[in-house]
Amino acid sequence: MTEEPPHTQPEQPSSSVNASPHAMYYAPQSKKRQFSEVVRNVQNHSAYKKGKEVLLEKKTLYSIGVALFIILALTLIFMIPEPTEPIEGEWMKADGEVYTFKGNGQMMSGIQMTSAWTTDGSQLTVITELNYMDESNKVTSRLVVQNIQFTITEDENAMWWSWQSVLIDDQEQDIAEPQCALLLRTSIAENTYEYSVVSDNYNNEKPESCTQNA
């Protein structure tokens, strides 16, 4: 009796022999994007571009607004008038002579050349350069400095003058008695007649040291 060879199974490929029925499946891993690439994508996004445009517009409008505010503030500052001296304006003496005190420190009068004026409290200093023809027909100039104590009335429409000293070419002149004068604004007295009518209203505000010589 012939013996049959033992039954054998065909050999499986080595890969199937080592394979495990419980082998894990690993999904393919995606490549991580670089941070710079993410930023670039965000910057290229339409929403980002729109937001950037809005911010730039707001920044521009803000800058324009600040500039306009500064210009407006400076304009208002320069429009505010500087405080003026109460002595500024046009004043008339009893003889009809008008003195014009300007804010730039000049004083104009009808019979004299332009003078310079300044105040220190209630002290008024008027400096005038007089030019005249001497006996030899030569032009001669003299410098006259008047120191005056002035008092403005309550309504600021009248002003009392009391001469303290008069210097001509640095030589002090004698003042025999108090020399006083009442000046009225030309807004209330335009001529000598109006002056005579209105001036009586200010006698009660005459300084004690002053005697009216008008």
Q: Tell me the span between the first and last alpha carbons.
A: 178 Å
Shape: elongated
Radius of gyration: 51 Å
Class inferred from helices and paired strands: alpha+beta
For the report, how would you describe the main beta sheet? 8 strands, antiparallel, barrel
Instruction: Give the strand order of the largest sheet, numbering strands 1, 2, ... along the chain.
Output: 1-2-3-4-5-6-7-9
The count of DSSP E runs of length 2 or more, i.e. the number of strands, is: 9
Taking pLDDT < 50 over at least 5 consecutive residues as the criterion, the unreliable ranges are 14-19
Query: Which whole number gives the mean pLDDT?
Result: 77
- Counted by DSSP, the helix tally is 4
Residue share in helix = 25-40%
Total separate domains: 2
Describe this structure in words.
The chain has 214 residues and is of the alpha+beta class. It folds into two domains: 32-79; 89-205, no CATH class. Helix content is 26%, strand content 29%. It is built from four helices and nine strands; from the N terminus they run αααβββββββββα. The protein has helices at residues 14-18, 35-44, 46-79, 192-198, and strands at 89-92, 98-101, 106-109, 115-120, 123-133, 139-152, 158-168, 171-172, 180-185. An eight-stranded antiparallel beta barrel has the order 1-2-3-4-5-6-7-9. A hairpin with a 2-residue loop joins β4 and β5. The longest helix has 34 residues, at 46-79. The protein is elongated, with a radius of gyration of 51 Å. The model is unreliable at 14-19 (pLDDT under 50).
